[in-house]
Amino acid sequence: MVGDKLKLADIRDSVVNKLANKYSNINIYDEKQKQGIIQPCFFVQLLPITSTRSSFTYNNNVAMINIQYLNDSTDTLECLNKKDELEELFIDYLEVAGEKISILESESNIAFDSLGSILTYSITLDYYKKIKDYEERKTIKEVNFE
């Protein structure tokens, strides 16, 4: 995927919107809340990993989306089902501003604490971003080594 004006916030917002469309009855937080969360809920965080210049005009970027599902139950089956649903929701690619970003891999982890269970589901994204327009450059026709 190549995006001219793709911003990291656009990627995060696309994930939040995709979750909101699927889970309209579950709260979704894209910032860390210290108090007042209502479970079950999702937390979404975007972590840029690398940005490598792949050509004169493009960067190759890798980013990770971390989705946490908090549930006040210690029922493992609920987390396993939610993991399967997230895997279906984020299969192959993520559409952002009409462009498709490849999903390289996904990982999941389930943990339990005094408040219930936490499913952490992470996807790694790979995309190209245009950093500047191509400039026509003059080629040297003759080189004199005197």
Features:
146 residues, STM4215-like, 2 helices, elongated, Phage protein, Phage_tail_terminator
Could you give the order of the helices and strands? EHEEEHEEE
- Main beta sheet: 7 strands, mixed
**Rough shape?**
elongated
CATH topology category name? STM4215-like
Tell me the Rg in angstroms: 20 Å
Oligomer: single chain
- Summed up, the domain count is 1
CATH C-level name: Alpha Beta
Question: Average pLDDT across residues?
Answer: 87
How many extended strands? 7
In CATH, the homologous superfamily goes by the name: Phage tail protein-like
Unreliable residue stretches: none
Relative strand content: over 45%
Coarse structural class: alpha/beta
Written overview of the protein:
This protein has 146 residues and is an alpha/beta fold. It has one domain: Phage tail protein-like (STM4215-like, 2-Layer Sandwich), CATH 3.30.2000.10. The chain has two helices and seven strands; from the N terminus they run βαβββαβββ. It has helices at residues 8-22, 76-89; strands at 2-3, 27-29, 41-53, 58-71, 93-96, 99-113, 116-130. Strands 1, 2, 3, 4, 5, 6 and 7 form a seven-stranded mixed β-sheet that branches.
Describe this structure in a few short sentences.
By secondary structure, the protein is of the alpha/beta class. It has 2 helices and 7 strands. 16% of the residues are buried.
Secondary structure layout plus pairing:
Blueprint: E1 2-3, H1 8-22, E2 27-29, E3 41-53, E4 58-71, H2 76-89, E5 93-96, E6 99-113, E7 116-130
Parallel strand pairs: 1-7, 2-3
Antiparallel strand pairs: 3-4, 4-7, 5-6, 6-7
